[in-house]
Amino acid sequence: MESVKKSLTIVSIMLVCLLLSKGLIAETRGVENGQRYGRLVIKNVVVIDGKGTPPRGPSDIIIEGNKIQSVRSANRREDAYQKEEHVLDGTGMYLLPGLINIHAHIHDSRAGQPLPFEYIYKLWLACGITSVRDVGSNYEKTISERRKSQEGKITAPRIFLYMRAWGRTPEEARKSIQQIKKRGGDGVKIFGMDRDIMKAALDEAHKLGLRVAHHVGVEETDAWDDAAFGVTSIEHWYGVPDAALHGSQKFPNWYNYSSEDDRFRYAGRLWREADQKKLNEVLKTLVEKGVSWCPTLVIYEANRDLLRAMNQPWFKDYLHPAIEEYFKPNPSYHGSYQWNWSTTDEVFWRQNYRIWMNAVRKFSNMGGVVGVGEDAGYIYMLYGFSLIRELELHQEAGFHPIDVVQHATGNNAKILGMEKELGRIRTGYLADLILVDGNPLENFKFMYPTGVTDLKDGKLISRGGVEWTIKDGFVYHAPTMLQDVKKIVSQSRQK
């Protein structure tokens, strides 16, 4: 009997070889982590594009080098693809444009301890993030990292670098913008500027073709100035409700803005003081002037539920000890302010969120462009995982999951000025794609690398997660990258 089985196996192999030699079936090759291929086929997937339309498929996506060559209906024939092609079988999976993180920080240290770039990059890629807009880092290092990413020399997302402008006078502000252009910045980040200085900075940025992200604080300028001077995007949310106040916020006489404990505690009471009629005018003006909004709902979530933020399940395997130390309450670290954080504070912040989310939805309904960013590395938010949480919060704000996907892909590409190259699954676009084991429109938790726990045939199983991330045509296996991150964390903890 054993000899018969061997004979049949040999005959089968000979038959396959004969069919291959005659061209009657195709010899296709698989893919390896970290490789870019001359021609790659992702077959039999359901496509969720970044243009705000429902899923469609099954489809086949043909990639040549770093570009999408075609998007077409799935070809089920066995001889559909030739031997020179590498194939990813996406049966049962969903294909999305690579997520864009519009508010990121490429940190090289936390709490005085070094933090490996590899750690952050692989977390981002494992969560499906193929592009990041860095709005604050060690610029010389980030310029080098951006170049290495562009050349495919490192496993990293695509990097857009927005450098901080400065200046005590309008003239100094103009010079800082000129320096940003000269150093190779992709854009500008501003905050804490007086009105005349901000006006000069924006004027110079427009002349040099640089986009501007405004991290608004409690300052002389607010959303009215963002609209008047032509800011590209408002980061977070300060400046929007401020512009709808009648005078100043009702701060107590002992309030000190430089104390982050005071600042964030009373930030949770700001939205309730905004005049809704005036707020509608603010939102309408921002839309008319083409100002986008990146609310980063996730970065303040600890304020409304501190215990949840401190005990996120992925911390067990993926929280680097340098970040763990940075998260602990410490007035020396930005965002580490939650000592004696009270139930009353959380209640105010929950009310704050309801009004804030409603404003973001109104802004979108008026035609405004809403983006997605995480601002991770602060306030208990971990790189990558926090961007997926941001998607969930956009859904909580009232957006349909299809629109949420568009926020993180097509909308973010538009904010970057890259809407003709990124954020879509379309012929000619850059090959930035993610293959997800599960339908994120059903449940955004399928996007988390840790997946979800489900019940099948009476047994608990784990499913979901990003399976493959493709950035600029390079194919990365998400579970492999997660294992690398887990190893980095384990070794750092041992040290």
Protein model, in words:
- By secondary structure, this protein is α/β, with parallel strands linked by helices.
- Among the domains are: 1-28; 99-416, TIM Barrel.
- It is 37% helix and 19% strand.
- The protein is built from 15 helices and 20 strands.
- Helix 4 links the parallel strand 11 and strand 12 (187-190).
- Helix 13 packs across helix 14 (401-416).
- Residues 1-28 have low confidence and may be disordered.
Any chance you could write out the topology, listing elements then pairs?
Layout: H1 2-21, E1 35-36, E2 40-47, E3 56-64, E4 67-73, E5 86-89, E6 94-97, E7 99-104, E8 109-110, E9 113-114, H2 117-126, E10 129-134, H3 139-150, E11 158-164, H4 170-183, E12 187-190, H5 195-207, E13 211-215, H6 223-229, E14 233-235, H7 260-267, H8 276-288, E15 292-294, H9 306-310, H10 315-318, H11 321-327, H12 343-365, H13 385-396, H14 401-416, E16 433-436, E17 452-456, E18 459-463, E19 466-471, E20 474-477, H15 478-494
Parallel strand pairs: 2-5, 2-6, 7-10, 10-11, 11-12, 12-13, 13-14, 14-15
Antiparallel strand pairs: 1-20, 2-3, 3-4, 6-16, 8-9, 16-19, 17-18, 19-20
Helix pairs in contact: 2-15, 4-5, 6-8, 13-14
Helix content: 25-40%
Which sheet architecture does the biggest sheet show? 9 strands, mixed
Proportion of residues in β-strands: 15-25%
**Number of E-type strands:** 20
Q: Under the CATH scheme, which class of the domain at 99-416? A: Alpha Beta
Backbone structural class: alpha/beta
